[in-house]
Amino acid sequence: xxxxxxxAIVTGANRGIGEALVRELVTMGAAKVYAGCRxxxxxxxxxxxxxxxxxxVALDVTKDVQVANAAEQxxxxxxxxxxxxxxxxxxxxxxxxxxxxxxxxMDVNYFGILRMxxxxxxxxxxxxxxxxxxxxxxxxxxNLPVLGTYCPTKAAAYSLTQGVRAELAGQGTFVSAIxxxxxxxxxxxxxxxxxxxxxxxxxxATLASLQRRExxxxxxxxxxxxxxxxxxxxxxxxxxxxxSLTLVPNxx
Length: 252
Description:
The chain is α/β, with parallel strands linked by helices. It has one domain (about 5-245): NAD(P)-binding Rossmann-like Domain (Rossmann fold), CATH 3.40.50.720. The protein has 8 helices and 7 strands. The chain has a 7-stranded parallel β-sheet with strand order 3-2-1-4-5-6-7, sandwiched between helices. The longest helix is centred in the middle third of the chain and has 27 residues, at about 100-125.
């Protein structure tokens, strides 16, 4: 799919990877970009920069009504980029006091994508098929226990991506998964001791892979390295990642 002249919607667009995606879409010639954020005013700077090509949309992916309203408002969309995400560093599957964090992360990282795919599938069909790009995480490939509640949400979203790809193949919708390792964003502030790529790096890798029609992409060196480690010795990698628990205290 060509980015040039496309009409895109990006969730979680007000900062980090989402913000970079909006800017890169405009740079690459997208006709229009809907910048979806919980508070539309948070995308005002992107609207100003976008020279008439960026439209702010109030969009909380955990709210059925807002997702439905966005699909109704953005009837010209040909590209959906599901970027909105929630991560709580240090939350444990067993050690945390409640499952509230796990539930909140699942609502954004899995059900949020599902809501968007369901709402926009008819829009994409009406506009010739288009594409859905799901920004996932290397944590979808195996669990990093210091992100114990987060990784299962990305694994679920990976499976969702495969299922949506199969269901929408008949209407010509291209569906891809982008596996992100470590990016210099607010979400990754607590992640120390690893090299982080810029959000712009991730945005460019994402859109380049879309134009090459690559269904699964490891978007940065950390993701590539983890995939290679898992291919060589998955159990050794699991044990290595498990040792991270001794380095990071339980947030609860």
